[in-house]
Design goal:
- The complex is a heterodimer of chains A (about 150) and B (about 500).
- Chain A has a domain of about 50 residues.
- Chain A has a two-stranded antiparallel sheet.
- The N and C termini of chain A lie far apart (about 75 Å).
- Chain A is built from four helices and two strands.
- Chain A is extended and about 75 Å long.
- Chain A is mainly alpha-helical and about 150 residues long.
- Helix content of chain A is about 30%, strand content about 5%.
- Chain B has about 500 residues and is α/β, with parallel strands linked by helices.
- Chain B has an eleven-stranded mixed sheet with strand order 1-3-2-4-6-5-10-11-9-7-8, with helices on both faces.
- The longest helix of chain B has 24 residues.
- Chain B is globular.
- The chains are: A mainly alpha (about 150), B alpha/beta (about 500).
- Chain A: Keywords: ATP-binding, Ligase, Mitochondrion, Nucleotide-binding, Protein biosynthesis.
- Chain A: This is Glutamyl-tRNA(Gln) amidotransferase subunit C, mitochondrial.
- Chain A: Allows the formation of correctly charged Gln-tRNA(Gln) through the transamidation of misacylated Glu-tRNA(Gln) in the mitochondria. The reaction takes place in the presence of glutamine and ATP through an activated gamma-phospho-Glu-tRNA(Gln).
Chain lengths: ~150, ~500
C-alpha cells in the first residue's frame, strides 16, 4: 500500500502541469464577441438618497414586534428595516396586469400525496430530548394569554 | 507511478479496489489536514471518531471486494444546516447551538448508504442568510486563496456555504454538500475556485435541510471537478417520499461523455446581455468574453440573448426571501428544541426573549421586514407583486430555452462580479448590500428553479480564482455538466494550487 503523504499533492501538481496545454490567452479573440463590453443601463436607478418619505411609524413598529416576537432594538436595525422597504419598493411599478402569481416552479406537477397512515413513530424520547424543559412526557411553557410587554410606547 | 492519484474520486476508488490506498488512511490524512488548516475555520465541528469508524467499515467492505458504490470510503463534508443523526446541527446560530437531530437529512442518509465518510459539519452564515460566511457565531471562514491569512487581510470564502467551499478548495475532502437559495453554493464555489452545482429545484430532496426559503432552497454540491460533482449528484438525486416537492419522475443517473467525444457543433450558447451589470470587474468580463470565444471556435453557436427582467430579480428575491424567512423562523420559540431563555413571565415573553437572544441582527431584521411586507395592507403591493414579477423572470428563461427557431441550450454568465473580496472591504457593507451585489447573477436561477453550475476558469492578477456560471432548462443537468466539463478541460484550472495550501504543506 502506498503511504499517503502531503507529497502526493505536490506530485499531482507536477503531473498535471507536465501535459498542460498552452494556457489560454485571454486577450486574443477569434470571433467578434457576443458578450456586451459595456454594462446594460440600470433599469432601477438607485433610490437610496430618497429617505424622506418615512414609510413606518412607531405604531407599525410595535405591531411588527408583536407579530415577529423579535425586538427592533437599535437605530441601526430601524435604518436597515427602512432601507429594505425602499429596496422592495423598486418593483411596484413593473407592469404585471394579467400576470398570475408564481407560487412554485413545480406548478405543473401534481403534489405527491401519501396514504393517511402511520409509517414511523415511537420516537417520543428522541423528540423530547431536544427540549430544555420537560415534565413527564410534556413540553412545558409559561402561562399563556398574557400580552407581550412592550416598552417605547 | 502515482499518476492515478490525481484526486479524482474515480482514481481514489480504483486505488481502494486494488489496495494501493485505504479509506482509513485517506480519512486519517483528511482529519490531520483539517486540523492543521484550522485557521480557515471551514468546519464548525469535525467528527473524527465517526469518520474513522465509517472509514474502517468501508475498508472492510473493500477487503471483501464489496464496496457500496464509487463513493465508498470517500471523505465528504456537510453544511451545518443539514440534519445529521446524533451530530449537532447548529445553522451557525445560538438558537440551534445545542440542537442534536434524531434523524438524517435524505441527502445525508443517501451519502451514508453509498458508503461515504462524514468528515464534519461546515460553517455558514447564520441560518444561511448571507453571501460571505462572515455572520456565523463560530466566526468567519477564510478563503484558502488569500494572499495573507492573518489579521484582517484575508479574503472571504463567499457564502452562505463558505465552509463547504473552503474545505473542498483546501483539499480536506473530495466533495461537500451545501445549500443554494440565491447562490449560496455557486458564490463560494466561484470565490474558492471549485465546481459548485445548484441542481434543478425538486431534483434533490430537502428533507432534513433546515429551511430558509422553501420555494427556492436546493441542496448544492461542491467538488474539484465536474466528474466528481456528477458522482455525488448521482447518489443524492431522485424522488423522496419524505419531501413532497421532489420531482416524481425517476432520476436517470448522469453519464458524461469523455472530453474528446463532446461535440459542441449542435449546441447553442446564449449570452444574456443584462448580466453585464454595473460593478462587473474587467477581469471577469475578459474571462466571460474569452470563454464565449473558445466555445464559438469549437463550433458552438454563440449568440447574445436578452432576459429583460434580470435587473428586477434581485428585488423580487429580497422580498420573497424575507417573507418566507418571517414564516419559517416562526418555529423557533424555545419550547420544543433550540435555545430557551430564562424568562417565565408568559409564553409570549419567553418566545420574544428566546428569539432576541437566539437570532443575530440579520435574521431579526429579515423577520421584521418580512412581516412588514406581509401586513394585510402590504400583501398585494409587495408579496403578490413579487410573485407576479417572479413569473415574468421565469418566463424570460423559458422563452430563451424554448422559442422554436432561436432556442439556446445553455446560458453563459459570470457567477460573481469580482474575485473574492477582502474581509475588511466586505464587512464594511450591510448584509443587504453584500447580498444585493453578490447574488446578482446567481439568484435568477433560483427564481426559475433551473439548474446552474459555477466552474473556475483562471486566476486574477491577485492570484484569486475567477469563475463563470452556466445555466440550462430544468432537468437538463446532463447537457449543462457536459458543457461545463468541456470548458473545464480547456482551461485546466488547478483547484489545489493556492499558495496558502502549499505553505501549509511544507
Amino acid at each position: 500500500m502506498l503511504r499517503i503523504s502531503n507529497k502526493i499533492r505536490f506530485y499531482c501538481k507536477i503531473a498535471a502541469k507536465s501535459d498542460l496545454k498552452s494556457k489560454l490567452d485571454f486577450t486574443q479573440l477569434r470571433h467578434p464577441t457576443k458578450v456586451p463590453q459595456q454594462p446594460e443601463p440600470n433599469a432601477f436607478p438607485d433610490l437610496d438618497n430618497n429617505t424622506d418619505d418615512d414609510p413606518i411609524d412607531s405604531k407599525t413598529i410595535q405591531l411588527l414586534e408583536r407579530l415577529s416576537l423579535v425586538d427592533l432594538d437599535s437605530e441601526e436595525a430601524l435604518k436597515t428595516l427602512k432601507s429594505s422597504i425602499q429596496f422592495a419598493n423598486r418593483i411596484v411599478d413593473i407592469p404585471t396586469e394579467n400576470v398570475p402569481a408564481l407560487y412554485t416552479v413545480l406548478e405543473k406537477q401534481q403534489l405527491q400525496l401519501r396514504n393517511d397512515s402511520v409509517t414511523e413513530g415511537n420516537c417520543r424520547q428522541e423528540i423530547l430530548r431536544n427540549a430544555k424543559i420537560t415534565d413527564e412526557d410534556y413540553f412545558v411553557s409559561p402561562p399563556g394569554n398574557i400580552p407581550l410587554e412592550q416598552q417605547n410606547e | 507511478m502515482r499518476r492515478h492519484l490525481q484526486f479524482g474520486i474515480k482514481q481514489v476508488h480504483s486505488s481502494y479496489l486494488d489496495g494501493r490506498l485505504s479509506p482509513h488512511l485517506v480519512t486519517e490524512q483528511a482529519v490531520k489536514d483539517a486540523l492543521s488548516l484550522r485557521t480557515l475555520n471551514a468546519f464548525i465541528r469535525l467528527t473524527p471518531e465517526l469518520a474513522l469508524l465509517q472509514a474502517k467499515e468501508s475498508e472492510e467492505r473493500f477487503q471483501e471486494k464489496q464496496p457500496k458504490s464509487e463513493l465508498d470510503g470517500i471523505p465528504i463534508a456537510v453544511k451545518d444546516n443539514f440534519c445529521t443523526a446524533n451530530v449537532p446541527t447548529t445553522c451557525a446560530s445560538r438558537m440551534l447551538q445545542d440542537f442534536v437531530p434524531p434523524y438524517n437529512a435524505t441527502v445525508v442518509s443517501r451519502l451514508r448508504q453509498a458508503g461515504t465518510v462524514l468528515l464534519g459539519k461546515t460553517n455558514l452564515d447564520q441560518f444561511a442568510m448571507g453571501a460571505g460566511t462572515v455572520d456565523s457565531i463560530y466566526g468567519p471562514t477564510k478563503n484558502i486563496w488569500s494572499e495573507d491569512l492573518s489579521k484582517d487581510k484575508w479574503r472571504i470564502a463567499g457564502g452562505s456555504s463558505g465552509g463547504s467551499a473552503s474545505a473542498v478548495a483546501a483539499g480536506l475532502c473530495y466533495a461537500a454538500i451545501g445549500s443554494d437559495t440565491g447562490g449560496s453554493t455557486r458564490n463560494p464555489a466561484s470565490y474558492c475556485g471549485v465546481v459548485g452545482l445548484k441542481p434543478t429545484y425538486g431534483l434533490v430532496s430537502r428533507h432534513g435541510l433546515i429551511p430558509l426559503v422553501n420555494s427556492m432552497d436546493v441542496p448544492g454540491i461542491f467538488a474539484r471537478s465536474v466528474n466528481d460533482c456528477v458522482k455525488v449528484l448521482n447518489v443524492i438525486a431522485g424522488p423522496d417520499s419524505k419531501d413532497s416537492t421532489t420531482i416524481r419522475q425517476p432520476f436517470r443517473k448522469l453519464q458524461l461523455p469523455e472530453v474528446d467525444q463532446i461535440n459542441l457543433r449542435s449546441i447553442s450558447i446564449g449570452i444574456p446581455k443584462e448580466y453585464h451589470c454595473l460593478g462587473l470587474s474587467p477581469e471577469v468580463l475578459a474571462t466571460w468574453t474569452k470563454i464565449a470565444d473558445i466555445l464559438e471556435c469549437a463550433g458552438a453557436k454563440v449568440e447574445q440573448v436578452s432576459l429583460p427582467h434580470t435587473a428586477a430579480s434581485i428585488f423580487v428575491y429580497s422580498i420573497l426571501n424575507q417573507c418566507e424567512v418571517a414564516s419559517n423562523m416562526a418555529r423557533y420559540d424555545g419550547i420544543e428544541y433550540g435555545h430557551r431563555a430564562l424568562d417565565e413571565r408568559s409564553t409570549e415573553q419567553l418566545y420574544a426573549t428566546t428569539r432576541a437572544e437566539g437570532f443575530n441582527q440579520v435574521v431579526k431584521t429579515r423577520i421584521l421586514t418580512g412581516n412588514f411586507l406581509l401586513l394585510r395592507k402590504n400583501y398585494q403591493k409587495y408579496f403578490e407583486k413579487a410573485l407576479r414579477v417572479r413569473r415574468l423572470i421565469a418566463e424570460d428563461f423559458s422563452k430563451v430555452f424554448e422559442t422554436n427557431n432561436q432556442a439556446v441550450d445553455i446560458l453563459l454568465t459570470p457567477t460573481t462580479l469580482t474575485e473574492a473580496p477582502l474581509f475588511r472591504d466586505f464587512s464594511a457593507l450591510s448584509n443587504r448590500d453584500q447580498c444585493a451585489v453578490q447574488d446578482f447573477c446567481t439568484q435568477p436561477a433560483n427564481m426559475a428553479g433551473i439548474p446552474a453550475v459555477s466552474i473556475p476558469v483562471r486566476l486574477s492578477q491577485n492570484g484569486l480564482p475567477l469563475s463563470l456560471q452556466l445555466m440550462s432548462k430544468s432537468l437538463n443537468e446532463q447537457l449543462l455538466l457536459t458543457v461545463a466539463r468541456w470548458i473545464e478541460a480547456q482551461v485546466s484550472f488547478e483547484c489545489l494550487e493556492s499558495g496558502q495550501l502549499q505553505a501549509a504543506e511544507q
